[in-house]
Design the sequence.
């Protein structure tokens, strides 16, 4: 039985730490797409894209796959079998959800001392949509499956709302996030009245973070309003990969230049400046009159590989080459994301890593 805690006291004999994504993983949490409204007109293609995504993960580690019921499980099993997925690495978990974005509705799993702990950050659909009550059940379901404790995150008596896509860590004490996502006073406000100091206290207590690097705005078209995993990512404990736009006329140019300047002036938890590597943005991608938030920064780091979204763009090869240089000991595997991005997110948004025991 998993114990649900509220406003837990800190045990001075233990220390929470959110492991970096490149640290050893047990597996990856996914939810098979079932809400066609997230990909209108492309839902059929998206499901097969997702099968390919699962296949690449299952080549090296476990996939914890949420499905709503036996009927969906049977359908998905048949699709995976046709695609020659390594089925022994798939663990089906029954849980109805509103959407499939596990980076945000799934639990963030930390190390508390020498044990794992799942954190529930009270997902509310990015403070934008009304249908999220089923998604709120995901953290407890996953914690039960993993047989680890679940802690509901509170600050000053208030439940804290935070999506996994809003943060990135180096596992040593530094966290990346954006002001647009967490500090905007009017749009998609997750935690009304919270200051920088409030967020930094939360990060310190629950994630073991002593140092926060605040970027400015996110990319244009981002439905989440500023998630960091479309902007910049740690690739090791002292190196940050950040997207830039070279076309001054592009909608993202000014914001990404500002973020680059902030990173160049930033310090890590040890007081040293981070190494900065720039990553191109794909050519502006539009569909049905909308600018989509396509970004190569939405890659997923696995134990033996890195899965990178690509967009049939002239910048794909350049981006893959740069990311390959950041992960010399991992295979770099491109995943076509031209359909997935119609849901306003790709590989990292759809997944959540499960740190190893």
Sequence:
């Amino acid at each position: 039985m998993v114990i649900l805690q509220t406003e837990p006291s800190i045990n001075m004999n233990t220390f929470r730490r959110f492991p970096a994504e490149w640290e050893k993983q047990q597996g990856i949490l996914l939810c098979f797409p079932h809400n066609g409204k997230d990909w209108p007109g492309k839902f059929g293609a998206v499901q097969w894209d997702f099968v390919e995504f699962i296949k690449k993960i299952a080549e090296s580690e476990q996939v914890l796959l949420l499905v709503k019921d036996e009927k969906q499980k049977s359908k998905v099993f048949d699709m995976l079998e046709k695609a020659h997925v390594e089925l022994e690495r798939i663990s089906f978990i029954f849980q109805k959800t509103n959407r499939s974005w596990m980076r945000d509705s799934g639990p963030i799993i930390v190390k508390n001392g020498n044990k794992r702990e799942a954190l529930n950050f009270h997902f509310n659909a990015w403070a934008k949509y009304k249908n999220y009550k089923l998604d709120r059940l995901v953290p407890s379901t996953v914690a039960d499956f993993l047989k680890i404790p679940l802690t509901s995150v509170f600050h000053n008596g208030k439940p804290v709302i935070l999506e996994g896509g809003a943060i990135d860590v180096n596992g040593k004490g530094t966290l990346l996030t954006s002001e647009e996502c967490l500090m905007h006073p009017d749009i998609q406000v997750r935690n009304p009245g919270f200051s920088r100091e409030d967020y930094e206290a939360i990060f310190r207590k629950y994630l073991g973070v002593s140092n926060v690097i605040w970027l400015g705005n996110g990319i244009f078209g981002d439905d989440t309003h500023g998630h960091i995993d479309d902007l910049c990512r740690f690739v090791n404990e002292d190196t940050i990969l950040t997207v830039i736009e070279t076309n001054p006329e592009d909608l993202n140019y000014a914001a990404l230049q500002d973020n680059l300047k902030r990173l160049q002036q930033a310090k890590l938890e040890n007081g040293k400046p981070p190494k900065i590597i720039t990553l191109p943005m794909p050519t502006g991608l539009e569909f049905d009159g909308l600018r989509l938030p396509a970004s190569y920064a939405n890659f997923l780091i696995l134990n033996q590989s890195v899965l990178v979204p690509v967009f049939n763009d002239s910048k794909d090869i350049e981006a893959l080459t740069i990311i390959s240089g950041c992960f010399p000991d991992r295979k770099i595997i491109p995943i076509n994301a031209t359909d997935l991005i119609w849901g306003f997110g790709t590989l990292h948004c759809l997944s959540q890593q499960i740190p190893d025991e």
Observations:
- The chain has one domain: 13-355.
- Residues 210 and 293 are 30 Å apart (CA to CA).
- The first strand starts at residue 4 and ends at 6.
- The chain has nine helices and 22 strands.
